């Protein structure tokens, strides 16, 4: 599969070596690329064959054996949310901050980011794992909608400015931690809707839908989102493989 973007080039005087091991269709990998580019961190990208991961990659992540892995000066960091925090902390003097300064808001951003990864993403995959069977699809869509309701209500309660401002310190182009984590997963909803079923009821979730549509227009999101046709082909292949 072709690479969806070209990484930044290293400067001759750059002492840091940053390598990202990932795969083109993984939202967890793309969120790391967004953070690196938004911070202006040069990096090299290595596409990992998930069917043949190779000894080098497995040596960097021997526990979960999963992408993404960020290798900074030979030291590997696994798990995308941890990588995002590492990027934000290590390069705190470069680019806009990903996490808010306020301790309470940071905790809430982490909570809802984890909710997205632990609940919403698996529910999305469950739609595909139905194999297109009508009753199972309906059940999976209902489960996702219930989780989305919890998320929307929680954000409006805990981080009320999130849905109402779509702007950042640089005038609106940069994305915060939650925008990157959630946006890169949900901004591809059209591929799910084309292949499986309707995913987001905009009439029922207007605040969330407006937020997501605004995130889709961010320059880095538009640059780094996997191509719609490639995702559709991949999802169709997954649907066909379900017994």
Automatic annotation (TrEMBL):
Its main location: cytoplasm. It catalyses: RX + glutathione = an S-substituted glutathione + a halide anion + H(+). Its EC number is 2.5.1.18. It comes from the Eukaryota. One of its GO terms (biological process) is glutathione metabolic process. It is found in: Cytoplasm, Cytosol. One of its GO terms (molecular function) is glutathione transferase activity. The keyword Cytoplasm applies. Residues 16-95 form the GST N-terminal domain. It is an enzyme of class 2 (transferase). Belongs to the GST superfamily. PANTHER family: GLUTATHIONE S-TRANSFERASE (PTHR11260:SF622), GLUTATHIONE S-TRANSFERASE, GST, SUPERFAMILY, GST DOMAIN CONTAINING (PTHR11260). Is involved in the conjugation of reduced glutathione to a wide number of exogenous and endogenous hydrophobic electrophiles. This is Glutathione S-transferase.
């Amino acid at each position: 599969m072709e690479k969806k973007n070209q990484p930044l080039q290293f400067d001759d005087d750059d002492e840091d070596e940053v390598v990202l091991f990932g795969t083109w269709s993984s939202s967890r990998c793309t969120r790391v690329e967004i953070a690196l580019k938004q911070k202006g961190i040069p990096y090299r990208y290595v596409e990992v064959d998930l069917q043949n991961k190779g000894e080098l990659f497995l040596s960097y992540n021997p526990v979960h054996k999963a992408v993404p892995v960020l290798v900074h000066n030979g030291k590997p960091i696994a798990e995308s949310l941890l990588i995002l925090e590492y990027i934000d902390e290590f390069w705190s003097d470069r680019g806009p901050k990903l996490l808010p300064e306020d301790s309470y808001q940071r905790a809430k951003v982490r909570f809802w980011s984890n909710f997205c990864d632990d609940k919403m993403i698996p529910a999305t995959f469950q739609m595909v794992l139905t194999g297109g069977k009508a009753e199972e699809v309906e059940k999976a869509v209902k489960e996702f909608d219930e989780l989305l309701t919890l998320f929307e209500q929680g954000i409006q309660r805990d981080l009320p400015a999130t849905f109402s401002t779509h702007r950042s310190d640089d005038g609106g182009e940069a994305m915060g931690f939650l925008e990157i984590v959630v946006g890169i997963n949900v901004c591809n909803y059209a591929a799910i809707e084309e292949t499986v079923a309707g995913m987001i009821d905009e009439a029922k979730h207007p605040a969330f839908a407006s937020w997501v549509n605004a995130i889709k227009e961010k320059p880095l999101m538009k640059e780094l989102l996997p191509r719609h046709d490639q995702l559709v082909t991949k999802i169709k292949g997954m649907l066909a493989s379900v017994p």
